[in-house]
Amino acid sequence: MKTSPFLPAILTGAFCAVFAVVITMLGSIVSLVPGLLIAFVSGFLGSLFATYVMKKKK
After folding, report:
1. How many domains does the chain have?
2. CB of 12 closer than 8 Å to CB of 18
3. Is 54 inside any structural domain?
4. Which of 5, 11, 18, 32 could tie 50 with a disulfide, CB 3.0–4.6 Å?
C-alpha cells in the first residue's frame, strides 16, 4: 500500500504543535532556552515520531 507523502508532514506538524504547547506550559523554562533550540528539538523529535509511525504501519 502506497502512503501519501503528506502523512509524515502532517504527523510532524502535529507533534510540533503538541511540543509547542508543552513548552508553553513550562513557561519559566522557555525564557532560558533559545527559540532555535526549541525549534530544532521539535522538528527532530517530530521527524523521528513520523518515521516511527510510518514504519509501524508497514
Report:
1. 1
2. no
3. yes
4. 11
